[in-house]
C-alpha cells in the first residue's frame, strides 16, 4: 500500500464511517429487532404450552423401566389388532415406524416385527395440542406404549399389515427413546433393488446393513427370513426324531484337521495348538461305530477358506446326518431326500406369510420338488451337459457354472429345483468314500442340489480299517494324523453313509435369494468379524 | 479363413471344379485370377461371381430392392463383422437380433448369399456364446440354427448346439 492510498483511506474514513457506520447501525438494529421478535414468539409459545394442557398426564416419557412396579396390564400385539376388537380400549407396545403431523392431527404407523398398524392422535376430548405436538416429535424406532380404542376403517389401509383397523390414541408414553439419526432407514432397507434406481429413492447396500445389523434385522424381510430359518432347523429335528434318529453334540475343538489341512482355523490350546472342526464327520462316524445307528447333529462348522463369494462363509451352521444301513447305501439316500422333502413341505405349509414377505422385496419363483425325489446318475448329468454343448470329460468334476447349467437343464426337463446326482467319480471325492463295487472309477457318493447349487455332499463311508488305510495312502495322507479315526473301525463297524447340509445355504436357496449373508444373522467371512 | 469359406461356398453352389485362389495384402484378401487377365478381388466380389457361374442368380435377390438388401448385408459382413473389436460384438449381436425379429432370412424372405456369408462370418462368435447369451439373442440363434441345417451350407464349420427349449426363464438372472 502506498502512502497516498493510506492517506486516501484515512481521508475517506470519516465519510466512510458515516456511510459504513450507518449501514452497520442499520444492520444491528435489524438484528436486534429480529431477536426481540423471536424472543417474543418463544415467550408466546411457552405461554401457549403452559396454558391449559388438559392432557398433561396422558402423555410423556416414562422413567426407565427398572422393574419398579408390577403393572397388571395386558398388552395386545399389533398382529392381533383385527376388526373383532373394534371399540375395545386396549394397550399396545410397539415401535414408531413413521410419523406424520398435519395441523391438529398426527398419524403414526406402529410396528411390531412383521406387522404394522396406523394410529391417530387428534386434538379433541382426549388429546391436547401439546400432546399432538409431543407425538409428532417422537423419534422413529422409539418404543412406546399407547392406550387406544380400536376402530374399524371403511377404506383398507393398504400400507399397513393390519389393513382393516386403526387406533385412536388416548394415552401415549415413551418406554425407550431412539436417537434421532438412524444409521439406515428401514423403508430404504425394505425397498426392492429395481425400485430404488428408478424412482431415485435409496436402497441400502449390504455392507451398511451388516455393519448395523441390529437395525437391519428389524425389517419385515429380515424377520421373515430368520423365522423361516428357525423353521428349517425345527423341521429338520422333528423329521429326524420321528424317524428314530438321536441328536448328538460333537466337539468343535479337535486335534487333527478332518477334511484336509488347508482350510482349517488353528487355536492356541494351552501349551499346544488345536483346530476348529471343519465338519462333525469323524465324530458322527464314531457314534455309528458306538451303535447309535442313526444320528444327527446341529452345530457350527468352521472353514478357513479365503473365498469371497455369494455362498461361502467362514462359520456356518451344519445340519449333519449319519446312518447305518442294512445292505445298500440308497437306504440312506432315500432317508435324506425324504427328510429334505418333509422340510420343503413344512416350510410351504407353515411359513407362507414369511415367504410372501420375503418375495415382496426379493421376488423369486416358488420352490419346486418331485416326490419321490429325482435321482440322476453322474453319467446322465454329464451326458445332458454334453448334449447342451459343454465340453468335459466323463470323470471330470463339475465346475460351478456347469453345476448351475445342469440345474437349469434338469429344471427344464423334469420341472424340479431339487435333485440328487449319484455315483460321482472316485477321483474327485475324499479318501473315506466307498468305491463303487462294479466300476472302480466311480464311487458310492452323491451330491444334492437346490436351484442348481450344491447343498449336500455325502457318500457311503469306508468302514473297513484296511481299505481305509489303503485309500488314505493313495491320497497321500499322513496316517499318523488319522490313527484314532482308523482305529475306530477296527472293532466291528456297521456299513454306514450320511451327508451334511448348511442351514444358511438351504434357507437362501429355498427362498431364491442370492447372497448367503442375507440368511446369516451375524455372518462371518474373510473380511468380516463383527458384529 | 476366407479361402475356406470360398471352397465351402463352391460346394454349396454345386460347382464341380475347385478354383485356385491367391491372396493379397496383410489381411489376406482373396484374389481370383480370371482367364481373360482381369482379377477379382475381395470375398464378396468373388462370391457373387461364383453365384453367377453356378447359374444361381436368385441367390443374390429377386427384385431390385432385394438385391440391394443382399448387397447391404454382404457389406455389413465385411465391414462390421470381420475383425470387429470385442466391445463391438455386443452391438452387432443386438443389431442383428433386432433385425431378425420378424424375418426368417436376411433378405427378401428367401435364402440368399447374404445368409450364407453371414453364417460363415458370425459362426466364430456364436460358437463361443454361453447358453444364457444364446437365449438372450434368441432371433440370431433361431436364424443361425436354421441356416446351419440348410442343406449344403455347413461344410467346414462345426455345428453349434442349440437347445430346443428355453432353459433360462425370461427376466431372471
From TrEMBL, chain A:
<dbReference type="InterPro" id="IPR002312">
    <property type="entry name" value="Asp/Asn-tRNA-synth_IIb"/>
</dbReference>
<dbReference type="InterPro" id="IPR004364">
    <property type="entry name" value="Aa-tRNA-synt_II"/>
</dbReference>
<keyword id="KW-0597">Phosphoprotein</keyword>
<keyword id="KW-0648">Protein biosynthesis</keyword>
<dbReference type="InterPro" id="IPR045864">
    <property type="entry name" value="aa-tRNA-synth_II/BPL/LPL"/>
</dbReference>
<dbReference type="Pfam" id="PF00152">
    <property type="entry name" value="tRNA-synt_2"/>
</dbReference>
<dbReference type="GO" id="GO:0017101">
    <property type="term" value="C:aminoacyl-tRNA synthetase multienzyme complex"/>
</dbReference>
<comment type="function">
    <text>Catalyzes the specific attachment of an amino acid to its cognate tRNA in a 2 step reaction: the amino acid (AA) is first activated by ATP to form AA-AMP and then transferred to the acceptor end of the tRNA.</text>
</comment>
<dbReference type="GO" id="GO:0006422">
    <property type="term" value="P:aspartyl-tRNA aminoacylation"/>
</dbReference>
<dbReference type="InterPro" id="IPR012340">
    <property type="entry name" value="NA-bd_OB-fold"/>
</dbReference>
<protein>
    <recommendedName>
        <fullName>Aspartate--tRNA ligase, cytoplasmic</fullName>
        <ecNumber>6.1.1.12</ecNumber>
    </recommendedName>
</protein>
<comment type="subunit">
    <text>Homodimer. Part of a multisubunit complex that groups tRNA ligases for Arg (RARS1), Asp (DARS1), Gln (QARS1), Ile (IARS1), Leu (LARS1), Lys (KARS1), Met (MARS1) the bifunctional ligase for Glu and Pro (EPRS1) and the auxiliary subunits AIMP1/p43, AIMP2/p38 and EEF1E1/p18.</text>
</comment>
<dbReference type="Pfam" id="PF01336">
    <property type="entry name" value="tRNA_anti-codon"/>
</dbReference>
<feature type="domain" description="Aminoacyl-transfer RNA synthetases class-II family profile">
    <location>
        <begin position="226"/>
        <end position="531"/>
    </location>
</feature>
<keyword id="KW-0030">Aminoacyl-tRNA synthetase</keyword>
<comment type="similarity">
    <text>Belongs to the class-II aminoacyl-tRNA synthetase family. Type 2 subfamily.</text>
</comment>
<keyword id="KW-0067">ATP-binding</keyword>
<dbReference type="InterPro" id="IPR004523">
    <property type="entry name" value="Asp-tRNA_synthase_2"/>
</dbReference>
<keyword id="KW-0963">Cytoplasm</keyword>
<keyword id="KW-0547">Nucleotide-binding</keyword>
<keyword id="KW-0007">Acetylation</keyword>
<dbReference type="GO" id="GO:0004815">
    <property type="term" value="F:aspartate-tRNA ligase activity"/>
</dbReference>
From TrEMBL, chain B:
<feature type="domain" description="GST C-terminal">
    <location>
        <begin position="49"/>
        <end position="170"/>
    </location>
</feature>
<dbReference type="InterPro" id="IPR053836">
    <property type="entry name" value="Arc1-like_N"/>
</dbReference>
<dbReference type="GO" id="GO:0005737">
    <property type="term" value="C:cytoplasm"/>
</dbReference>
<dbReference type="GO" id="GO:0003746">
    <property type="term" value="F:translation elongation factor activity"/>
</dbReference>
<dbReference type="GO" id="GO:0043517">
    <property type="term" value="P:positive regulation of DNA damage response, signal transduction by p53 class mediator"/>
</dbReference>
<dbReference type="InterPro" id="IPR053837">
    <property type="entry name" value="AIMP3/p18_C"/>
</dbReference>
<dbReference type="GO" id="GO:0005634">
    <property type="term" value="C:nucleus"/>
</dbReference>
<keyword id="KW-0648">Protein biosynthesis</keyword>
<dbReference type="InterPro" id="IPR042450">
    <property type="entry name" value="EEF1E1"/>
</dbReference>
<keyword id="KW-0251">Elongation factor</keyword>
<dbReference type="Pfam" id="PF21972">
    <property type="entry name" value="Arc1p_N_like"/>
</dbReference>
<dbReference type="InterPro" id="IPR010987">
    <property type="entry name" value="Glutathione-S-Trfase_C-like"/>
</dbReference>
<protein>
    <submittedName>
        <fullName>Eukaryotic translation elongation factor 1 epsilon-1</fullName>
    </submittedName>
</protein>
<dbReference type="GO" id="GO:0017101">
    <property type="term" value="C:aminoacyl-tRNA synthetase multienzyme complex"/>
</dbReference>
<dbReference type="InterPro" id="IPR036282">
    <property type="entry name" value="Glutathione-S-Trfase_C_sf"/>
</dbReference>
Amino acid at each position: 500500500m502506498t502512502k497516498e492510498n493510506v492517506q486516501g483511506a484515512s481521508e475517506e474514513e470519516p465519510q466512510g464511517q458515516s456511510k459504513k457506520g450507518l449501514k452497520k447501525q442499520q444492520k444491528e438494529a435489524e438484528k436486534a429487532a429480529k431477536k426481540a421478535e423471536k424472543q417474543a414468539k418463544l415467550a408466546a409459545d411457552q405461554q401457549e404450552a403452559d396454558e391449559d394442557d388438559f392432557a398433561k398426564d396422558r402423555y410423556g416419557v416414562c422413567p426407565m423401566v427398572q422393574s419398579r412396579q408390577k403393572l397388571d396390564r395386558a398388552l395386545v400385539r399389533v398382529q392381533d389388532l383385527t376388526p373383532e376388537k373394534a371399540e375395545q380400549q386396549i394397550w399396545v407396545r410397539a415401535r414408531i415406524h413413521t410419523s406424520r403431523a398435519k395441523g391438529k392431527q398426527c398419524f403414526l404407523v406402529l410396528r411390531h416385527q412383521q406387522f404394522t398398524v396406523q394410529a391417530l392422535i387428534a386434538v379433541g376430548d382426549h388429546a391436547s395440542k401439546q400432546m399432538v405436538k409431543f407425538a409428532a416429535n417422537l423419534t422413529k424406532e422409539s418404543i412406546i406404549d399407547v392406550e387406544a380404542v380400536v376402530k374399524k376403517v371403511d377404506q383398507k389401509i393398504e400400507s399397513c399389515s393390519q389393513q382393516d383397523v386403526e387406533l385412536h390414541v388416548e394415552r401415549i408414553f415413551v418406554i425407550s427413546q431412539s436417537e434421532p439419526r438412524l444409521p439406515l432407514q428401514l423403508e430404504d432397507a425394505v425397498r426392492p433393488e429395481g425400485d430404488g434406481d428408478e424412482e431415485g429413492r435409496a436402497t441400502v447396500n449390504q455392507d451398511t446393513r451388516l455393519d448395523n445389523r441390529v437395525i437391519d434385522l428389524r425389517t419385515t424381510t429380515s424377520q421373515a427370513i430368520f423365522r423361516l430359518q428357525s423353521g428349517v432347523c425345527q423341521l429338520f429335528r422333528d423329521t429326524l426324531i420321528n424317524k428314530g434318529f438321536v441328536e448328538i453334540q460333537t466337539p468343535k475343538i479337535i486335534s487333527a484337521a478332518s477334511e484336509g489341512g488347508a482350510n482349517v482355523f488353528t487355536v492356541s490350546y494351552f501349551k499346544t495348538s488345536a483346530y476348529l472342526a471343519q465338519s462333525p464327520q469323524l465324530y458322527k462316524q464314531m457314534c455309528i461305530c458306538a451303535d447309535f445307528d442313526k444320528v444327527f447333529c446341529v452345530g457350527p462348522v468352521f472353514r478357513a477358506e479365503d473365498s469371497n463369494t455369494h455362498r461361502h462363509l467362514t462359520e456356518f451352521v451344519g445340519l449333519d446326518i449319519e446312518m447305518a444301513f442294512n445292505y445298500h447305501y440308497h437306504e440312506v439316500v432315500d432317508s435324506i431326500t425324504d427328510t429334505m422333502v418333509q422340510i420343503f413341505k413344512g416350510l410351504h405349509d407353515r411359513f407362507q406369510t414369511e415367504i410372501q414377505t420375503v418375495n415382496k422385496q426379493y421376488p423369486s419363483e416358488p420352490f419346486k420338488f418331485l416326490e419321490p425325489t429325482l435321482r440322476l446318475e453322474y453319467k446322465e448329468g454329464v451326458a445332458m451337459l454334453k448334449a447342451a454343448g459343454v465340453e468335459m470329460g466323463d470323470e471330470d468334476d463339475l465346475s460351478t457354472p456347469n453345476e448351475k447349467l445342469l440345474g437349469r437343464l434338469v429344471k427344464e426337463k423334469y420341472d424340479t429345483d431339487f435333485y440328487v446326482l449319484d455315483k460321482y467319480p472316485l477321483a474327485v471325492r475324499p479318501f473315506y468314500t466307498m468305491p463303487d463295487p462294479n466300476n472302480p472309477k466311480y464311487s458310492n457318493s452323491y451330491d444334492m442340489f437346490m436351484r442348481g447349487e450344491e447343498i449336500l455332499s455325502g457318500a457311503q463311508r469306508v468302514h473297513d480299517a484296511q481299505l481305509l488305510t489303503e485309500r488314505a495312502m493313495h491320497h497321500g495322507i499322513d496316517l499318523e494324523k488319522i490313527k484314532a479315526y482308523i482305529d475306530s473301525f477296527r472293532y466291528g463297524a456297521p456299513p454306514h453313509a450320511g451327508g451334511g447340509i448348511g442351514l444358511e445355504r438351504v434357507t437362501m436357496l429355498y427362498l431364491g435369494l442370492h447372497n448367503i449373508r442375507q440368511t446369516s444373522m451375524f455372518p462371518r467371512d474373510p473380511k468380516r468379524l463383527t458384529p | 479363413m476366407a479361402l475356406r469359406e470360398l471352397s465351402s461356398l463352391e460346394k454349396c453352389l454345386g460347382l464341380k471344379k475347385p478354383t485356385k485362389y491367391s491372396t493379397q495384402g496383410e489381411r489376406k484378401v482373396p484374389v481370383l485370377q480370371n482367364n481373360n487377365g482381369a482379377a477379382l478381388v475381395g470375398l464378396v466380389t468373388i462370391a457373387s461371381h461364383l453365384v453367377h457361374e453356378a447359374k444361381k442368380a436368385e441367390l443374390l435377390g429377386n427384385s431390385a430392392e432385394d438385391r440391394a438388401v443382399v448387397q447391404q448385408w454382404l457389406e455389413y459382413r465385411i465391414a462390421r463383422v470381420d475383425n470387429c473389436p470385442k466391445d463391438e460384438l455386443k452391438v452387432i449381436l443386438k443389431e442383428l437380433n433386432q433385425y431378425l425379429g420378424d424375418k426368417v432370412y436376411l433378405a427378401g424372405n428367401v435364402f440368399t448369399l447374404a445368409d450364407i456369408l453371414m453364417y460363415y462370418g458370425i459362426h466364430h462368435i456364436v460358437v463361443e456364446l454361453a447358453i444364457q447369451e444364446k437365449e438372450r439373442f434368441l432371433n440370431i440363434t433361431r436364424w443361425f440354427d436354421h441356416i446351419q441345417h440348410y442343406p449344403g451350407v455347413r461344410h467346414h464349420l462345426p455345428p453349434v448346439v442349440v437347445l430346443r427349449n428355453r432353459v433360462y426363464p425370461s427376466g431372471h438372472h
